[in-house]
Amino acid sequence: MRFGVYLPTFAWRDLRLDQAARVKAFARRAEGLGFDALWVAEHFLEAPGLYGTVWMSPLLCLAHAASVTTRVRLATGLLIAPYYHPVPLAREIQTLWHLSGGRFVLGIGPGWDQHEFETLGMKLSERGRRPDKPYIVPAVLSRIAGADGWLARAAGSQQMVKDDAKAIREHCAALGRDPGSLRLGHLNFLHLVDTTDRAEALRRQRPIFERVMGTHRTFENLQQSYFLGTTREIVERIRDLEAAGIHDMVLATCDYDLDQLERFASDVVGRFA
Length: 273
Fold this sequence. Notes:
7-stranded parallel β-sheet, 42% helix
């Protein structure tokens, strides 16, 4: 299993310049700790019920990170393709690819937030068909099977990620593609705390997660979706996903937190060496 990390590009309402400046320090340290890739998110607006923040420009943040690193891959997870005109986007991708020494990895998705589309003067119905169901429909499976990899969202349950991975592998096999040739990944948020007591861990983690995810979902729902609980429990969830065929694990901090990055490397990734 390869481990990457999300760059903390949160555009908090009270974001300070000194916080934003940590993106460079975070990128440097992540590379120094041996992480495989730096990933970035994209959303212009808060989405009540899913997240309570927005993120800075993904491509600009990756260019920022590229300027202070030499090895680590730079990935979008995901870039919302309909938000961009294809020609200038292609130029930006080409530029980032060459300036980073070929380290850029393009991950794209169609988007889903109607309010975000409308704010940008677009219609969600024109993005291309993507049925919003709790499973992957055949049209989407076919698109995934034609790609280099697939990144599972963090908002679903552990079982949903495993079921989706199984469906993708079966679909690849049915099409005559070696399922092992498609890399399957999963991103998730976590905040490690110093306790072996689950109740105490959740008590400490709750306000941190609710700042990022908002409070429209129950805390029980957040526990199903995200890596909450003791460090041992989090490692067990990752091992479970590895056994289910997940090749790439993308770990996300809940703030501009270099201490958490260090702990990801020692307390989580170190268990898989």
